[in-house]
Automatic annotation (TrEMBL):
One Pfam family matching this protein: Recombinase
Every Recombinase domain range: 1-101
InterPro entries referenced in this protein's UniProt entry, alphabetically: DNA_bind_recomb_sf, DNA_bind_recombinase_dom
A GO term for molecular function: DNA strand exchange activity
Name listed for the protein in its UniProt record: Recombinase
Lineage: Archaea, Methanobacteriati, Methanobacteriota, Stenosarchaea group, Halobacteria
Length: 127
């Protein structure tokens, strides 16, 4: 939250952020964390239902460990920290566990050709 152009920690939101980190470590699923929060009637600060993208933004936001970056200027501000480096690192490791390897060009072409062939068969364009 901004207060006179200074970030100020909202204790309620900080507690929710810590809870989201803990839920993610337990559940290991962003959609599941969103589902739990929605089921409990907890909304985003804007009053909306939680979505996977909202959870992902929170779990990757380095501001919660005090890393501050604006217009290319990076700084560390301990007063902005609401979670430990250890917790942030655990969550980051879990988030990256299923990160797919980039496909090489031949594999991309092969996959595209297979999808196009299946589409043609289903729509009758292959005849």
């Amino acid at each position: 939250m901004l207060d006179n152009d200074q970030l100020k920690i909202n204790d309620t939101e900080a507690s929710l952020v810590r809870r989201i980190y803990q839920l993610y470590i337990r559940e290991r699923s962003m959609p599941q964390v969103a589902f739990i929060l929605n089921k409990e009637g907890i909304t985003t600060p804007a009053g909306n239902d939680w979505k996977t993208q909202s959870i992902q933004k929170i779990l990757s936001n380095e501001l919660y460990i005090g890393q501050y970056c604006v217009a290319g200027y990076e700084d560390y501000v301990n007063e902005y920290r609401i979670i430990s480096d250890d917790l942030f690192d655990k969550v980051t490791d879990i988030r990256h566990r299923f990160k797919p390897e980039p496909m090489d060009k031949e594999r991309k072409i092969s996959k595209s050709e297979r999808i196009l062939s299946e589409y043609r068969k289903k729509t009758g364009l292959d005849e």
